Every structure is written in structure tokens, then in C-alpha cells.
Amino acid sequence: MERVRARVIVEGRVQGVFFRHHTQEVAFRLGVTGWVKNRRNGSVEAVFEGDRERVDQIIEWCRRGAPEARVTGVHVNWEVYTGEFEDFSVTY
Length: 92
Description:
This protein is an alpha+beta fold. Helix content is about 25%, strand content about 40%.
């Protein structure tokens, strides 16, 4: 089972629509660790760590987003897995 880390930037109408909260719920359900936060430019940034299949699933979820979100772009940068996270948090 391959462990991976992805840094994801989600663009569009993704702030003020509970995107971070829904991302945290999906991460908990999938067993993915990391964090999610709003960026000053209106996008959302997240770091996901876990099994490759589950990280791929949450990235695919980000392409659709929370019910009220309108995602216009998802940028994924693969990084070296660190295992530094115990859970998934919303960062402010």
C-alpha cells in the first residue's frame, strides 16, 4: 500500500460555502490526514496524506466540492510523504 502526500489548491467559489468543513468530513471518512485552510486570494489549500487510493478519492471530491461550491480549478502537487499528521484539521 503506497503512502502519498498531495498539496492541493482549489479555485472557484470555495470560501463561505463550508468547503473546509466538508473537506474535513470527507477526510475523516476516508482516513486521510492533513489540513485545509482558506487562502487570501479566495482559493482553498489542503495537504492530504494517506494511502494513494484514498488521497486520489479526496482529490476527486475536491473537483466537485461542497454542495454550494463552484470549483473552477484544482492544482495538485505531489510531495514526499512525511506521516507527520495524526488527524485532519481545519487551519485558520
